[in-house]
Amino acid sequence: MSEGQLQGEARFRRRAIKVDEAMRLVLEAAAPGRQESVPLWEAGGRRLAETVSATTDWPPFARAGLDGFAVRSADTALASPGAPATLRVADTVAAGALASAAVAPGTAVRIMTGGAVPPGADAVVMLEQTADAWVDGLPAVQVRSTAEPGQHIAPRGEEFARGSEFARPGELLRPGHLALLGTFGYAHVPVYARPRVAVLATGAELLPVEAPLEPGRIRDSNSAMVAALVAQYGGVPVLFGRVPDEQSAAAQAIADALQQCDMVITTGGVSVGDYDVMASLLRLIGTEKEQGEWMERTEAGGSIERYGGKGKGKPLDSDEVIIGNAAPSAAVSGAVVLKAAAAHGAGVSCRQGSFGPVPPAEPRAAALDAISSEPIAEATQLGSDAAPSTTAPQPAMEMARSEDGQLGQASASARSLLPLASQLPPASNPSPRALLPQDSRLLFNKAAMRPGAPTSAAVISGKLLIALSGNPGACFVGFELFARAALLRMQGASEEAARPKQVTAKLVGGFDKGSPHERFVRARLYTENGMLYADPLAFGKSSMMASIPNADGLIRLKAGASGADAGAIVDVIVL
């Protein structure tokens, strides 16, 4: 494989996993994250991070439910419109005030909605069932109906007893929650922090949005769309600009993004093209299972087999090696060879004959991690192309890009210093795998879906990386299926609540095209006569974006030789 070509035959051996399984892996990796305390008025729409409880009984006193008179129910036992009970008005109680005395037999207290019911009274008669009167020159009231004990009174603790929980972690705070929180004195509320999400675009063909078009190039539209989606689902987008199609630069950009953010979303570079940098970089991470299997093969009996052929196991039985196209070096141990080759991504050959390429990146990384007893030296400054980037990433809506709109050029130390076996000649590039933390694992690098099959995900230093397609339609679908779920989960939603909401609808127009994988079709949803309808939108191909603004649902069609007929009942993900 040439220096400029990032992918080899392994690009065609990616195993697709079902969408539901991919979503499960993403949700498992996206555990609820940082917590913070925010002012009560800012807590709406956030998810609670701690259990909150009533700090007092509620209501804290017996409270009048309406305007009227607080009475003793026994004094009204014989009252009727024709023979009302006449009671002397002893006091008036406004909301927030207390009666000066208890209600004695034959008396009543004028009371307002929300006022504290005075001692002695066990009922409130609404104002409309009374009439003003005078007794011996003093104010009185005529009650024209019988009052039942407890009538129109909210007893103390009717809604909440002190110490009772009223909201738990992960609950979405709605306006009603804020009313309760204010009632119980929560001036600041513990919530899950909004995840900071790095947005990186790959592709040498991309231009800044403000740049004029050039032949063969297009503007970066995905970054703005992804940033808006991140914000829509509660995250804080941090724009890192464009990353060159070069492994070390991409690895450095991701490492920089992870320093500042809770999650990384990339667009483009995930397919099988020669220069699809994210696909090749994710393959360097590999899965723990693949790493373990390869190490078992290499450690058993000290022999190594070619990776990925049909029974072509040819042991490496010479300590003299050739790294890439370099001349034979001095004799070094096989362990050093493996380590250096893993670090350089180079091919390895025996002097007696071709040994074949070093295994793909997953086992390469395992060998690099597992073999550590050999002496390692640092390389010196490489060629003149190792100049450092002129600007460091800075969080801005939030933007972090260099003056030319690109980010991800390896720093001077990353591009010039490299772990090497001291006996071996220096390499021309740093190891992309060495730029990423060793505790990295691939979740998947292909999903059984259309569009967006190359969508991938990994965990790097405990943080989620989701690599979306560069095609706008596929990028949009991949975000709605995986990134959206991850964002909600990181903000405290349960795994079930974080999953996309799915309903059934009647298909308006037929969709004839079959697919070997599940297909997600952008659609407009509407209700008519109590029935939900899904109308497939035009311009729905992976590379097309005209239908994205009007899509409020994704029709989910099962894999098969044909699609679905008009009138069929189909599953739909609500956007």
Explain what the structure shows.
Helices cover 21% and strands 26% of the residues. It is α+β, with helices and mostly antiparallel strands and 575 residues long. The chain has four domains: 9-32 and 195-482, 3-Layer(aba) Sandwich (Molybdenum Cofactor Biosythetic Enzyme, Chain A); 35-58 and 158-192, Molybdopterin biosynthesis moea protein, domain 2 (Alpha-Beta Complex); 63-154, Molybdopterin biosynthesis moea protein, domain 3 (Molybdopterin biosynthesis moeA protein, domain 3); 501-574, Beta Barrel (Beta-clip). The strands form ten sheets. Strands 7-4-6-5-9-8 form a six-stranded mixed beta sheet, with no helix packed on it. A six-stranded mixed beta sheet has the order 16-13-17-25-24-22, with helices on both faces. Helix 3 (222-232) runs parallel beside helix 11 and helix 5 crosses helix 8. The protein is elongated and about 100 Å long. It starts with 18 loop residues before the first helix and ends with a strand. The model is unreliable at 287-398 and 400-428 (pLDDT under 50).
Keywords:
575 residues, alpha+beta, Molybdenum Cofactor Biosythetic Enzyme, Chain A, Molybdopterin biosynthesis moea protein, domain 2, Molybdopterin biosynthesis moeA protein, domain 3, six-stranded mixed sheet, 12 helices
